[in-house]
Design a protein that fits this description.
The structure is a single chain. The protein folds into 3 domains: 59 residues, no CATH class; 200 residues, Rossmann fold, CATH 3.40.50; 97 residues, no CATH class. 44% of the residues lie in helices and 18% in strands. The protein contains 14 helices and 13 strands. A hairpin with a 6-residue loop joins strand 2 and strand 3. 24% of the residues are buried.
Length: 401
């Protein structure tokens, strides 16, 4: 190991040690990302809700749906028999997420599911636009503010309490269809305003329950004071029966499968990794010119088959055996026609000419001329063999090239 390499290694070791010492006593930063994942224990994950859902929805059977889209799941449970034409399952489709990532085809299937007397509960910050348009709704998303958000139920028989949520973004329904919509909950950031955040919308034979504050079901709020009571109050509106909880996108699918995932999740290790890569690049740049070997020039192998063919051809030509050359060119041509175009060459007649014309796209006159020359040679109706060789060769070249 030369002196320069020792210096590089010493610098890298020093930098790594400095990073480790600096970050050793630093508290791990809190991850405030709203993942709404049932596996996340961070503030805005659903780990606690996943463990407590049976207690929150007492007496109701919970079925988790994570492998397929809502459309695929509901369509697989639909009986299309003309005497039935109804779903094999009955209950409430349930989803909590940051944004409405349900595709349009699934939303249409949810409408059909509700029209058969079922229910859908969605708690989202942003709903699919096709859902809002169909139910004549608008959602307002305000910019972050410094105020906290007060949330309460509309029906005083359910609860009279107001719950103070320390969150900076307020989303609410700015437009509803009053004929088919029942307001179930409100929220506000000031004393003089009141916005709708929870509604029930009648659709055909069932109902949509739409809620704009999914944070209420996260670890942070379920474990903070009496906030869990608000989640219980909201869930009391879910009809008794089976609940089909759509958790796709909430089961950690977004977690990277990279072997470096843990390194990038730790600031100290991440910077150590970056400095290592930078050090290696610097080492390569300073040593590349001195260490690089001359790349030898390797001549490509000559095509001996082509040389052999030319030699044999010249031999035939010098011997003046033109008839033999013509026969071999005809045999080669007909073999190529049989193997590439799958045309029978037993009889070179009009049927053969038409088939070859259609399959090759070559001029029919050129094909007819070549067939004439081949038949003429075979019947020995020729004069100069050398002239025949040139004519037949030129005619074959027109067809094969």
């Amino acid at each position: 190991m030369n002196k320069s390499i020792k210096i590089y290694v010493a610098i890298l070791v020093f930098v790594l040690a400095l990073i480790i010492i600096t970050d050793r006593d630093q508290p791990k930063p809190i991850d405030w990302r709203p993942t709404f994942s049932v596996h996340d224990k961070i503030p805005y994950g659903l780990f606690v809700f996943d463990k407590e859902i049976k207690g929150l929805l007492k007496g109701q059977k919970i079925e988790r749906v994570s492998a397929v889209t809502p459309y695929e799941y509901l369509d697989a449970n639909y009986n299309s028999d003309t005497l039935v034409e109804d779903y094999k399952i009955k209950g409430t489709f349930f989803n909590i997420s940051e944004y409405g990532a349900i595709d349009d085809q699934s939303v249409k299937e949810l409408f059909y599911f509700v029209s058969r007397g079922n229910s859908v509960f969605l708690s989202m910050r942003s709903f699919p636009q096709i859902l809002l348009d169909s139910l004549k709704l608008d959602v307002q998303s305000n910019l972050p503010s410094l105020n906290s958000t007060s949330i309460w139920m509309a029906n005083k028989k359910v609860s009279t309490k107001k719950y103070l949520f320390k969150q900076s973004v307020e989303d609410y329904f700015s437009k509803i269809d009053t004929l088919n919509t029942t307001v179930l909950g409100y929220q506000s950031t000031t004393k003089n305003e009141k916005h709708i955040n929870f509604i029930k919308v009648r659709y055909s034979g069932g109902y949509f329950y739409l809620h704009t504050q999914p944070a209420a079901f996260t670890n942070f709020h379920l474990l903070k004071g009496n906030h869990y009571q608000y989640a219980e109050n909201v869930l009391t509106y879910i009809p008794k029966g089976n609940v089909f909880w759509y958790t796709k996108g909430q089961n950690g699918e977004s977690i990277s499968g990279s072997p470096l995932r843990y390194i990038f999740s730790q600031p100290g290790l991440k910077w150590a990794y970056y400095f290592s890569i930078i050090g290696i690049l610097i080492f390569m740049i300073f040593n590349a010119k001195r260490k690089q070997r001359i790349v030898p020039i390797i001549k490509p192998l000559s095509n001996l088959t082509v040389d052999f063919t030319k030699t044999i051809g010249n031999l035939y030509y010098q011997e003046g055996d033109h008839a033999n050359i013509i026969d071999k060119k005809i045999i080669y041509f007909l073999e190529k026609i049989r193997t590439e175009y799958l045309i029978d060459t037993t009889k070179l007649d009009d049927d053969f000419i038409k088939k070859l014309h259609h399959k090759t796209g070559k001029n029919e006159t050129d094909i007819r001329e070549l067939v004439f020359l081949i038949n003429e040679h075979r019947n020995s109706y020729h004069g100069s063999l050398e002239e025949d060789l040139i004519r037949i060769n030129n005619a074959i070249e027109k067809i094969l090239h």
